[in-house]
């Protein structure tokens, strides 16, 4: 089945220019995302997964800058967009939801106001009534009862899970083709997490939008994603389908991640094995493989040369060379 | 909400009573009688004390004063305009109205110019206009009001001859310019600085990132989402600002020779005219307390999270 | 073919890999791996803040400006021959940079008398010192006399370069006419001459000729000297008052915020009441009320503390008392607000849950997080203290004459503002620059301490 490519990222490089020096938060990552596809991006804190997402939606703040590579969305180079085009693009074609729903809604405006605003800022000729109806419809879609009443409430009157639902409703109100979810469940209770994931899967099926799902939780990835990219220190170290990553992980880091994840399906009580050491300092990355110092299979060559991803020609799977 | 306001008014009333007591006691702690001059004999002083009830025990004097105050009688002047009712001096002779007019103009100017300037600076953060505004506002909060007033007097009044040197009873529009400018400059600059700071603070919040992710225009993000949140610290300042403008009024009225309440108040202190000092204090205190009440309610209007019915808040 | 390609590496993308030998594929030792992670020296929070502050050009310039005013105020008086309280008759109402009449005479005399050190009598010193045509005056404990037929008011004393004994005297008129040879030789008056009916005050000499850079006031006091001393007073009052406010306000505010509930309510009503009091009136009353008991205490007490206090003067002490009594409320509100806000935050809840005692939570979590706010508030408190002090001086309270502050200098000048604007401008500009520099330094410290603003 040949799907249309929605998002093509090639050799994207993002750096932060801090007083202490250049931090290469994202150092040359590439991937494609097809329409209707759910891509998970996994990595630990500081691996550059959020920064990469922010550069897609044009939310990179000073001192962060895209310094190389390209991002194409629906064939258009979005890095060449003017600020105003970028603004039109945000929220309309691509939306984003964030980690902490507690602080992501403006406390001084009603939920309804904030929902309608997301619609009206992209469609000038939507009447107030239409916007209201659409917002109510969206709230119902994300499973908020009593939507009419809820529209008039303020964020502090909502629970965490409800706010995240409202955020999703807000993100989807313009029917975007791509949703970027930046750790949308991390700050929530486990039961709420499951509800939100269920909701997202459900909505994804209904609307057919593509999702870039950023998380550090492999369980969440297994739940919702079609494909997975594993990021470490600004690089994608491994990429593949969910089953590839879970059953045939190639990179020691991926293996380490899997080993450190509790599994409910294992009958035998297996010990969790943490990954030793701490992530590299991105201000001064090592010359060789970024994971080298923490890798149990590390070879001398690994410390000298960065490890390229080798393309296996018949599949779209990217695997690191030599680490298997 | 309504009950809360009533309660606040009750507390405010108690505060005023307390201020009256404190003022009264402090006034009486000052050594020396108001009638003590070089010429006065002990008999003359005793007679004067008896006439104005100053020979009675302190507690009786205090009680009398408070009762009279409740009746709307603020006493009679002892020295400056002997025998004239204080209410008449303060309210009918236009002293209060004059100072009030000046103060209200200054508040309006400070808020109406200060907030947009702060937004402008935050909006253009790091650009030349921000730097210019930063220099002006930083200077503005560093210049003492009497220096500023003196400068206005020298340049606008003497050198350029644009405004009258003596503003008097503020008969003409021109006579307002220098005093209002002198009175409102500090709060204006302070508000502008406050707005800029809290605006930039608000801009770093997560909900602004959400608003950006929605694709809102920068203008909408700043003026709708950031401004309302950043108004909270500005509103907090409005209470002290009123007090500051009352205080500043003393200097401005002194410099531009405006016969308002401030100028009169200072002379009453220097003359130790007890009833005038106390009445003026109570009037000004009432004003400031009312302003604080208004600020509390304004809070509710801006920030829905603050619940006025909640105990122990604010 | 396809099967083979499956294992065919895309070699183009990995230059340099051909040159590798088998030894490169040996396992790396733990040491080699360790060496890869060059640990960067972790910079402490305060050192990092200091670095940020130093990088901030505006605040460094402001700090330099503040130090300049500080040095001007505290060391300046060592370099000028004038004192804040000395009144020089005939030196009144001089413009900036001008010399008094006497000083002009000395300047002139110095040009004409080689080998002699000349100094002028303070103008007016000679008045009423004459008996007929013999003039007597006392200098350095010795009575001198000289003859002159006409009335002498201003004159120059001539000293030999090495001695402190005056040798001769030349009157102003002779000096003006250039008749240097008419200098009257001075004689020591013997004890036989009865000078008791004469005003035998010590003569005051002008020690050194120095222009009155800021001019003089109507009483002939040098305004630059007064500005320096005024600066000392203003800086000291500002800093000490701000510290008083900081200590009282943060203790009160954090107690109120942490206690919460009824205690908080009562404490905040007290704050409200103090807040609602028109401060200036209470300050005025306190100033008036405190003066007599304070003076009595200072006179009675012989402790070092009391002596130090009496050097400051009653006016300044009552300003401090006023600040301790009234002005901490703003600070306490700020601290309470911060505490309430922080109390809700996770790390405090976490500390609470771990059973950290309340005092420790305040010290380890709340205060460090309030530091930025406290610094901003304190830095705003210093100018506010300086303002209040100058305001009181403006009303005739605060520091009392002949002691001075920048504020009282400005108010002294207010009466003659249209005639002598510079009298207000000099202290006014220094006052403004002082406040400005303190504000900017405060801003710089805030930016440096607040990592959220880190660029």
Task: Briefly summarize what is shown.
The complex is a heterotrimer of chains A (324), B (314) and C (455). Chain A is of the alpha/beta class and 324 residues long.
Radius of gyration of chain B: 24 Å
Q: How confident is the prediction overall: mean pLDDT of chain A?
A: 79
Question: Which outline of chain A best applies?
Answer: globular
What Rg of chain A, in angstroms, do the CA atoms define? 20 Å
User: How many DSSP H or I helices of chain B?
Assistant: 12
Describe the model:
- The complex is a heterotrimer of chains A (324), B (314) and C (455).
- With 324 residues, chain A is α/β, with parallel strands linked by helices.
- Chain A has 11 helices and 12 strands.
- The longest helix of chain A has 18 residues, at 190-207.
- Chain A is globular and about 65 Å long.
- By secondary structure, chain B is an all-alpha fold.
- Chain B folds into 2 domains: 2-92, no CATH class; 96-259, MetI-like fold (Orthogonal Bundle), CATH 1.10.3720.
- Helix content of chain B is 74%, strand content 0%.
- Chain B contains 12 helices and no strands.
- Chain B has helices spanning 2-29, 42-51, 58-70, 86-92, 95-123, 128-140, 145-159, 173-203, 206-214, 218-255, 261-271, 274-302.
- Chain B is flat and about 80 Å long.
- The two termini of chain B are 14 Å apart.
- Chain C folds into 2 domains: 101-202, no CATH class; 223-453, Orthogonal Bundle (MetI-like fold), CATH 1.10.3720.10.
- In chain C, the strands form 2 sheets. In chain C, strands 1-5-6-7 form a 4-stranded antiparallel sheet. Chain C has a 4-stranded antiparallel sheet with strand order 2-3-4-8, with no helix packed on it.
- The longest helix of chain C has 37 residues, at 223-259.
- Chains B and C meet through helix 1, helix 7, helix 10, helix 11 and helix 12 of B and helix 8, helix 9, helix 13, helix 14 and helix 15 of C.
């Amino acid at each position: 089945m040949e799907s249309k490519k929605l998002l093509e990222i090639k050799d994207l490089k993002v750096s932060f220019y801090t007083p202490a020096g250049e931090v290469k938060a994202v150092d040359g990552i590439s991937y494609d995302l097809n329409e209707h596809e759910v891509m998970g991006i996994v990595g630990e804190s500081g691996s550059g997964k959020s920064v990469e997402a922010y550069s897609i939606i044009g939310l990179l703040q000073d001192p962060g800058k895209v310094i190389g590579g390209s991002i194409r969305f629906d064939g258009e180079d979005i890095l060449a967009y003017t600020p105003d085009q970028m603004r039109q693009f945000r929220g309309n074609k691509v939306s984003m939801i964030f980690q902490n729903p507690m602080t992501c809604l403006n406390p001084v405006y009603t939920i309804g106001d904030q929902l309608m605003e997301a619609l009206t800022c992209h469609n000038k000729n939507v009447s107030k009534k239409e916007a209201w109806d659409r917002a109510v419809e969206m709230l119902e879609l994300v499973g908020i009862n009593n939507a009419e009443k809820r529209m008039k409430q303020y964020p502090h009157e909502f629970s965490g899970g409800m706010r995240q639902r409202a955020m999703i409703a807000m993100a989807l109100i313009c029917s975007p083709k791509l949703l970027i979810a930046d750790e949308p469940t991390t700050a929530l209770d486990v039961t709420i997490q499951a509800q939100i994931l269920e909701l997202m899967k459900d909505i994804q099926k209904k609307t057919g939008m593509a999702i870039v799902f950023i998380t550090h939780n492999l369980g969440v990835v297994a739940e919702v994603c079609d494909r997975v990219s594993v990021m470490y220190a600004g690089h994608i170290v491994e990429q593949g389908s969910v089953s590839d990553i879970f059953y045939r992980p190639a990179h020691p880091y991926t293996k380490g991640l899997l080993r450190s994840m509790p599994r409910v399906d294992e009958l035998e009580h297996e010990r969790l094995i943490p990954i030793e050491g701490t992530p590299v300092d991105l201000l001064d990355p090592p010359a060789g493989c970024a994971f080298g110092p923490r890798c149990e299979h590390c070879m001398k060559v690994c410390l000298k040369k960065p490890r390229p991803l080798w393309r296996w020609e018949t599949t779209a799977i990217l695997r690191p060379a030599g680490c298997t | 909400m309504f009950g809360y306001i009533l309660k606040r008014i009750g507390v405010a009333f108690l505060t005023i009573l307390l201020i009256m007591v404190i003022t009264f006691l402090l006034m009486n702690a000052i050594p020396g009688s108001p009638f003590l001059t070089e010429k006065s004999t002990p008999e003359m002083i005793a007679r004067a004390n008896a006439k104005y009830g100053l020979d009675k025990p302190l507690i009786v004097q205090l009680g009398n004063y408070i009762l009279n105050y409740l009746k709307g009688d603020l006493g009679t002047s002892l020295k400056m305009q002997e025998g004239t009712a204080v209410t008449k001096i303060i309210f009918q002779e236009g002293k209060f109205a004059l100072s009030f007019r000046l103060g209200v103009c200054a508040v309006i100017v400070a808020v109406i110019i200060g907030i947009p300037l702060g937004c402008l600076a935050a909006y253009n953060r790091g650009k030349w206009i921000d730097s210019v505004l930063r220099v002006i506002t930083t200077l503005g909060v560093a210049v003492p009001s009497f220096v500023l007033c003196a400068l206005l007097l020298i340049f606008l009044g003497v050198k350029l001859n644009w405004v009258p040197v003596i503003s008097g009873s503020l008969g003409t529009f021109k006579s307002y310019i220098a005093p209002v400018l002198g009175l409102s400059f500090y709060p204006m600059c302070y508000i502008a600085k406050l707005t800029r700071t809290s605006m930039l603070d608000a801009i770093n919040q997560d909900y602004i990132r959400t608003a950006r992710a929605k694709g809102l225009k920068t203008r909408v993000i700043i003026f709708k989402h950031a401004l309302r949140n950043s108004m909270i610290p500005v509103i907090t300042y409005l209470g002290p600002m009123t007090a500051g403008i009352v205080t500043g009024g003393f200097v401005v009225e002194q410099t531009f020779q405006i016969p308002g309440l401030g100028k009169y108040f200072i002379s009453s202190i220097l003359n130790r005219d007890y009833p005038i000092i106390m009445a003026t204090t109570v009037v000004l205190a009432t004003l400031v307390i009312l302003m604080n009440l208004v600020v509390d309610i304004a809070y509710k209007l801006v920030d829905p999270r603050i619940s006025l019915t909640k105990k122990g808040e604010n | 073919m396809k099967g083979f390609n499956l294992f065919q590496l895309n070699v183009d993308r990995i230059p340099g890999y051909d040159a590798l030998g088998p030894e490169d594929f040996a396992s790396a030792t733990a040491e080699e791996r360790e060496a890869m992670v060059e640990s960067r020296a972790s910079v402490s929070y305060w050192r990092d803040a200091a670095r940020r502050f130093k990088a901030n050009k505006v605040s460094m310039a402001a700090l330099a400006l503040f130090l300049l005013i500080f040095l001007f105020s505290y060391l300046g008086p060592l370099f000028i021959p004038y004192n804040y309280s000395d009144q020089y008759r005939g030196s009144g109402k001089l413009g900036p940079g001008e010399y008094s009449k006497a000083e002009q005479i000395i300047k002139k005399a110095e040009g004409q008398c080689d080998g002699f050190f000349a100094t002028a009598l303070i103008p007016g010193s000679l008045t009423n010192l004459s008996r007929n045509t013999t003039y007597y005056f006392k200098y350095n404990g010795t009575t001198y006399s000289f003859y002159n037929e006409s009335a002498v008011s201003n004159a120059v004393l001539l000293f030999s370069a090495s001695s402190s004994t005056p040798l001769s005297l030349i009157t102003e008129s002779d000096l003006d006419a250039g008749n240097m040879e008419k200098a009257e030789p001075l004689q020591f008056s013997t004890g036989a001459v009865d000078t008791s009916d004469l005003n035998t005050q010590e003569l005051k000499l002008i020690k050194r000729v120095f222009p009155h850079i800021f001019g003089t006031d109507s009483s002939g006091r040098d305004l630059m000297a007064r500005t320096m001393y005024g600066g000392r007073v203003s800086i000291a009052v500002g800093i000490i008052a701000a510290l008083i406010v900081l200590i009282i306000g943060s203790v009160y505010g954090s107690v109120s915020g942490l206690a919460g509930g009824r205690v908080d309510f009562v404490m905040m009503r007290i704050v409200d009441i103090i807040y609602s009091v028109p401060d200036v009136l209470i300050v005025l009353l306190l100033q008036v009320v405190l003066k007599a008991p304070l003076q009595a205490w200072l006179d009675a007490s012989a402790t070092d503390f009391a002596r130090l206090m009496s050097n400051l003067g009653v006016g300044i002490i009552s300003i401090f008392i006023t600040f301790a009594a009234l002005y901490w409320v703003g600070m306490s509100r700020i601290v309470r607000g911060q505490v309430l806000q922080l109390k809700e935050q996770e790390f405090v809840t976490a500390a609470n849950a771990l059973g950290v005692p309340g005092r420790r939570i305040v010290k380890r979590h709340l205060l460090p997080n309030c530091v930025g706010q406290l610094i901003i508030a304190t830095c705003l408190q210093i100018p506010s203290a300086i303002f209040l002090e100058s305001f009181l001086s403006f009303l005739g309270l605060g520091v009392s004459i002949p002691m001075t502050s920048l504020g009282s200098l400005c108010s002294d000048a207010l009466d003659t503002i249209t005639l002598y604007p510079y009298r207000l401008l000099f202290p006014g500009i220094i006052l403004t620059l002082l406040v400005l520099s303190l504000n900017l330094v405060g801003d710089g410290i805030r930016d440096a301490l607040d990592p959220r603003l880190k660029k």
